[in-house]
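Board notes (copied after class):
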Amino acid sequence: MNDIDAWVWWLVGAAALGIPLVVTAMPEFGMLAVGAVAAAVAAGLGFDAVVQVLVFVVVSVALIAVVRPIAARHGHNRPQLATGVDALKGKQAVVLERVDGSGGRIKLAGEVWSARALDTGRAYEVGQEVDVVDIEGATAIII
């Protein structure tokens, strides 16, 4: 074991830390692996074991302290993709059959939907463009 240089052991440690990174998808393991690579560089430059460990600790902690909060902040800012009926809210539709508070038909996203007016006292005539504000079951609520 003493025949193998210290920098090789640090690279083995970096590879070992890469395994749980891939298996668990926890970026902290990757940051520790980068710290191990930095310690391998220090070992390759001839620094003693204390300096190597300090390089490993400083680089790893710096990455975790700086990169992790930035990555977490970007992870929470992902745009939400509306799918299903949520994607239809806010779309325009064309009235196919008179729509009032009790019902009617519209053409929404290329399909015929049952619809009713949000304002029960209001009626929409054939050919009129309307906005979908909500979907309740299989009925579009329009204004």
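Comment from the instructor: The mean pLDDT is 90. The two ends are 78 Å apart (CA to CA).
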